[in-house]
Write a structure and sequence with these properties.
Layout lengths: L1 H14 L1 H28 L12 E7 L5 E2 L1 E2 L3 H8 L3 E9 L5 E5 L2 E4 L3 E4 L2 H5 L4 E4 L1 H4 L5 E5 H8 L8 E6 L2 E11 L12 E3 L1 H11 L4 H4 L7 E7 L5 H15 L7 E6 L20 H30 L3 H9 L4 H35 L13 H28 L3 H5 L10 H33 L9 E5 L8 H8 L5 E7 L11 E4 L8 E8 L3 H5 L3 E4 L12 E6 H7 L8 E2 L2 E7 L14 E5 L6 E6 L4 H15 L8 E2 H8 L1 H35 L1 H9 L4 H35 L10 H28 L2 H5 L3
Parallel strand pairs: 7-12, 9-11, 18-23, 20-22
Antiparallel strand pairs: 1-2, 1-13, 1-14, 3-13, 4-7, 4-13, 5-6, 5-10, 8-11, 9-12, 10-11, 15-24, 15-25, 16-24, 17-18, 19-22, 20-23, 21-22
Length: 792
């Protein structure tokens, strides 16, 4: 019976080429899009699941009296836990060094050591890391041991490296000779810890003693917050019940008045559960993105399945006689249901290999997008194929179930008389069409709203003028020649203005504020300090609305000058604070509010301090169209001042795109799936219009013979579908408004969900539906009614 059902299904699919092509195309597009989103969601939730002891690993998190949580604390946690917390088998301290600070010297070349961490040797056992050569036993008690990953050994030494080989590291002016103690396999791609170089904690203490000796006493105290602690607890430990006891250990063992609340974050939750933590150095993701893309995948699958169900339901009316003949010849309801379900499953399975092929074509383009890594073809690919096959089978079964049940229950006499569905029998088909239009319209409203918000991020009056700005980061070792560099840069004619800031990045993601007590205020206000050089506001295109810019001779006169923003003026409660003295400094100007961060955060009261000795980033404003000349000229000056050190630079426009990379990727994804929804919906409507026009050819001919105009016939054909569009509109408006309101809550400065956007989307979808139906209706109207009636 199964063989006969397969052969019959194959013949049915082949003999209806138009519907087969429409169905398979819709399924392939829907399955491919859903598979991409599902792989992304699976990848995002798989971080740190690659470690064998994942269920035993926890990261220590500290929360202060203000409710601020951080995974960084004192290095003294390890000896305290080792003696007093018996449930903790091992604890490894990790210090994440600043990128590009540590240089590797090899064959008289300097390479920036990316992903360099300092950690206890217990880290290798806790993470179950495998050594290719050497190991912890080789390091023994050496304080200058260095471990490197296999990829780093290949990249920097071409694989020609031996155990205990001297490795030269350079940090600022200090040189360190390390001994290679081991080469380990790279950590898996879905590890939140990225480590190509691992040195011991003593190496970090040596660097601190050489570069910043004043901070060494703090590093060895409970007041330090630079060390991350990763704990391995005994199997079966209930961490919640143990936390109060560990809190008591901390309170008794630490200094009095530390006032820190301790908690333990499961290692698997670091990637998606660290949004509220400050000073987190691990790779992190966005839980909202996972939910959003999972729902998008579900919607696309529903669209593809509904598209198939609509066409199958409509086409089933043309199979009444076939079903009647089968029943007369003895076919049972069970056999008919199996036949129709096999036909549905076979069609969807035909789409599966095409979807997987298309997935392979899409993979390199998506993986190459910044901040949007999707690992499709990995060791999990076999598991993915099993998931995808199961999803495809489910779509085939669910899509064909309604048609199978209905057709199998037909009365054979009515079926042989070719009594087609009456209007009341199409209720489920109408629901399918309405749901399809609802998803399409909702996606369109969301896409345009998201686009307007991203556009606001770039052109907002609160943002820095992004045109013609070049950024050059400075390291502390470079700063000693900052004055000489500035004097030489003054000779570049294409540079209209230049300045500097103490911010490491511009725009800056991190917001550091401190409470400030004011004489006329009962409670302190949160204020942000930004150290800048003269002409900072002129360079970034921000207007000083009151007062003046900094006096370059104020430092020689030992006088500190401030400029505040409008928010700061409001916080001080003074109408014109210019000339006001505060903390042995004088306010000399008020600048209009602008955002040095992103629009996610409110602009805080900000004090801009004239401090050219704290500049971390040089800022240049150049003439329009002269960027290539300016970069070349700056490189020449840089080579004179810093011979042998390459110039690093970026354009502000690039940096701005970088901080909004997630939002940019999100709007691209929504736009792609909106277009996909239009394509799938359009194919479904076209197929349905094709079937309806075939069934109503004689009716249309009769109406034309009796004098009906073309407009009357077009309206009758479109009336029902316009009603579906109206119902979809009523449902989609509150749903899309709610979704966008949730997404926009991530931004402090945001657009409103506009009624005009909704109206535009409604008109677009209505015109789209009407155009598809009109194409088919015009073909029927152009035909001669005599041809349709001559056989009656």
């Amino acid at each position: 019976m199964i063989r006969n059902a397969l052969v019959t299904s194959y013949r049915t699919i082949i003999n209806n080429k138009t519907y087969t092509i429409i169905n398979i195309t819709g399924l392939v597009l829907g399955l491919t899009a859903a598979f991409v989103l599902l792989v992304f969601s699976i990848n995002e939730t798989s971080y740190n699941s690659c470690f064998t002891k994942q269920d035993q690993l926890y990261r220590v998190v500290f929360t202060d009296s203000k409710g601020i949580s951080t995974p960084c604390g004192s290095k003294l946690i390890k000896p305290l836990f080792s003696v007093n917390v018996h449930e903790c088998n091992r604890i490894a301290r990790i210090i994440h060094t600043m990128p590009s600070v540590i240089k590797l010297e090899n064959k008289f070349q300097l390479f920036a050591c990316k992903n360099f961490i300092c950690a206890d040797n217990d880290i290798f056992n806790i993470l179950g890391m495998n050594f290719i050569r050497g190991g912890v036993q080789v390091a023994a008690q050496r304080s200058n041991s260095l471990f490197i990953s296999a990829s780093a050994a290949k990249k920097y030494f071409n694989g020609n490296i031996r155990l205990l080989q001297p490795v030269k590291l350079k940090v600022g002016r200090c040189n360190y000779e390390m001994k290679l103690a081991g080469i380990y396999d790279d950590l898996p791609w879905n590890s939140t810890i990225k480590a190509d170089f691992i040195a011991g904690i003593p190496f970090y203490e040596s660097m601190l003693n050489d570069l910043m000796p004043d901070l060494l006493p703090m590093f060895n105290s409970w007041d330090d917050f630079s060390v991350e602690s990763l704990c391995e607890f005994a199997p079966g430990t209930d961490i919640r019940s143990e936390t109060p006891g560990i809190q008591k250990v901390l309170n008794d063992g630490a200094i009095k008045g530390l006032n820190l609340k301790i908690s333990f974050q499961p290692f698997r939750e670091i990637y998606l559960g660290s949004a509220d933590l400050v000073s987190n150095s691990h790779l992190t993701g966005n839980r909202l993105s996972v939910y959003t893309y999972s729902w998008l995948a579900l919607f696309i699958l529903l669209l593809a399945g509904i598209n198939y169900a609509i066409l199958s339901t409509a086409r089933s009316a043309l199979r009444f006689k076939e079903i009647g003949v089968r029943k007369v010849l003895g076919a049972t309801k069970r056999e008919l249901r199996i036949q129709i379900l096999i036909e549905s499953v076979l069609l969807t399975l035909m789409a599966l290999p095409l979807a997987l092929f298309l997935l392979g074509m899409v993979d390199p383009r998506i993986t190459g997008m910044p901040d949007y890594t999707i690992t499709m073809y990995s060791s999990n690919m076999l598991k993915y194929i099993l998931y995808f096959t199961g999803i495809t089978l489910s779509i085939g079964i669910l899509s064909g179930l309604y048609v199978a049940i209905y057709l199998a229950g037909l009365n054979p006499i009515n079926a042989l008389k070719a009594k087609y569905f009456s209007p009341g029998k199409f209720n489920l088909s109408k629901v399918f069409i309405g749901f399809q239009l609802f998803i399409t319209l909702s996606l369109l409203i969301c896409m345009i709203t998201i686009y307007h918000q991203i556009r606001l991020c770039y052109i907002s009056n609160l943002s820095i003028s992004r045109q013609n700005i070049l950024l050059v980061p400075l390291k502390s070792s470079d700063f000693q020649k900052y004055t000489s560099l500035k004097s030489k840069l003054a000779g570049i004619s294409d540079i209209t203005s230049y300045s500097g800031t103490g911010l490491i990045n511009l725009p800056s993601v991190d917001m550091n504020s401190v409470p400030l007590n004011l004489p006329n205020s009962k409670k302190p206000i949160q204020i942000e300090y930004v150290r800048i050089d003269r002409d900072f506001f002129k360079t970034i295109g921000i207007q000083i609305i009151r007062g003046r810019d900094f006096d370059p001779y104020s430092i020689t006169r030992k006088r500190i000058e401030y400029i505040i923003n409008e928010e700061g003026e409001k916080g001080f409660g003074v109408e014109n604070p210019v000339g006001m003295n505060m903390n042995q400094a004088r306010i000399v100007g008020v600048v209009r509010d602008f955002n040095i961060h992103t629009l996610h955060k409110k602009i805080l009261p900000t004090l801009f301090i004239y401090d050219p000795y704290s500049v971390n980033t040089l800022i240049f404003h150049y003439k329009q169209g002269s960027e290539n000349t300016v970069v070349t000229d700056i490189k020449k000056v840089w080579a004179q001042v810093y011979p042998g050190i390459p110039l690093n630079y970026s354009f502000f426009q690039q940096e701005l795109k970088g901080v909004y990379s997630r939002e940019n990727n999100f709007v691209i994804a929504v736009a792609v799936f909106t277009v996909l929804a239009f394509v799938i919906t359009g194919m479904g409507l076209f197929g349905l219009a094709l079937l309806i026009s075939e069934r109503k050819t004689k009716e249309t001919a009769v109406r034309k013979v009796f004098g009906a105009s073309n407009m009357q016939i077009i309206f009758r054909m479109q009336r029902e579908f316009l009603l579906y569009t109206g119902i979809a509109t009523i449902v989609s408006i509150p749903v899309s408004w709610l979704l966008m309101d949730l997404w926009l809550k991530e931004f402090y400065y945001r657009v409103n969900v506009s009624i005009w956007v909704m109206l535009l989307c409604i008109l677009t979808v209505t015109a789209f539906v009407s155009a598809i139906l009109l194409m088919r209706t015009l073909k029927v109207l152009r035909s001669n009614p005599v041809n349709a009636l001559k056989y009656e």
